[in-house]
Design brief:
This protein folds into two domains: about 180 residues, Rossmann fold (3-Layer(aba) Sandwich), CATH 3.40.50.2000; about 140 residues, 3-Layer(aba) Sandwich (Rossmann fold). The chain is built from 18 helices and 13 strands.
């Protein structure tokens, strides 16, 4: 079995699965290199304990279509040599789509972990990547009932397996390792009295107008704020002359992307999280931390329905109004798949059963 990954979220999702894969299969790990520097990927190797990959494709940074093509091309050659029984991909990145395309053209069965999610935003690269993988996959491991319903609406009825959210499984393990007080002290923060902000999606950080809105929102925040800036966001802000202005704001603590335990600690202790990340949305909800989504929609509709997150886009007035509210009224997520406790085991057991029986 070949498992293909290459971004920070995929390192986290794989951290609970790779050892189970190695217990049941001849497991080969392939890092695409989509997140190629230490800030984006190296620290995640360190904290997750993921072993050294068997192969590294060395893709690096480029436009999404070119990135998908390079991943598919290099992986196609590798799969031709390895001839695995299955290929596993995660989530909604260029690595996901490139891995799916390469497996399809080699006629190798594909497993898509975190299948079926839809924001119904045709602009988003993530949406395109999800659709590509889902329509090429044999196994569609869905985290929620609505994800399964999305697939059925698109005519996909076979191979849907409700397993739950592998990120939630890893969050349960890592939440015991974090120290909110230690992280708050590092940034001179009072727990419960600061904001934690992340922003990385291409439709925001590559759009000068939207990025200017992000900068205006950051400068106007009324509490101490940690902004964990993706390298692409920092580069774009610098090109617009905005990074230096943000550094001059006394309430802002600007950091590179943080190791996973540190990100979790800041999420847990925040007054409110502001993010465009699907993973951070969920982690905030699980901690009970109010979260504002800096997009005009989200694929995690269950979290909106239960009151854990609110979609504000980059509307400064809506953001300000929500930040003035004391707390959100959060209800349990009413979804039988979402609350599954051991999704990794479910995934491995299903793959083992199907690969043995053919």
């Amino acid at each position: 079995m070949v498992t293909v990954f290459g971004t920070r979220p995929q390192f986290i999702k794989l951290s609970g699965l790779w050892q189970l894969f190695e217990e049941r299969f001849r497991s080969i790990l392939v890092d695409s290199g989509q997140h190629y520097d230490y800030e984006l990927a190296g620290s995640f190797h360190d904290v997750t304990g993921l072993r050294t990959p068997d192969y590294h494709l060395g893709i690096g940074s480029c436009a999404p279509a070119a990135q998908i093509g390079r991943i598919a091309d290099r992986l196609d050659t590798l799969l031709g040599r390895l001839r695995p029984d299955a290929v596993v991909v995660f989530g909604d990145t260029s690595t996901t789509a490139g891995g799916a395309v390469a497996a399809a053209f080699r006629n190798i069965p594909l497993a898509h972990v975190e299948a079926g999610l839809r924001s119904y935003d045709p602009r988003a690269a993530e949406e395109k990547n999800r659709v590509i993988a889902d329509h090429l996959a044999r196994w569609l491991f869905v985290p929620t009932e609505s994800a399964a319903a999305n697939l059925r609406r698109e005519g996909i009825t076979r191979g849907i397996v409700g397993v739950g959210d592998v990120l939630h499984e890893n969050w349960r393990r890592w939440r015991r390792e974090i120290s909110v007080d230690a992280m708050a002290a590092r940034y001179n923060l009072a727990p419960g009295n600061y904001y934690f902000v992340t922003c990385h999606r291409a439709e925001t950080v590559d759009d000068p107008n939207r990025l200017r809105q992000v900068a205006r929102i950051l400068r106007a925040l009324d509490r101490p704020t940690v902004f964990a800036a993706h390298p692409r966001a920092r580069k774009s802000l610098s090109a617009l002359g905005l990074w230096g202005r943000l550094k001059q704001s006394r309430h802002l603590r600007l950091t590179p992307p943080l190791p996973y335990p540190e990100s979790l600690a800041l999420t847990s202790g925040a007054h409110t999280v502001l993010t465009d990340s699907g993973g951070v949305q969920r982690e905030a909800a699980w901690f009970g931390t109010p979260c504002l989504v800096l997009r005009d929609r989200t694929e995690w509709t269950e979290l909106v329905a239960c009151g854990a997150i609110r979609v504000t886009d980059l509307d400064a007035a809506v953001i300000e109004r929500n930040l003035r509210r004391r707390r959100f009224r959060m209800r349990p997520v009413a979804d039988r798949f979402h609350n599954s406790r051991y999704p990794s085991r479910r995934i491995v057991n299903r793959l083992a059963r199907d690969l043995v029986t053919g």
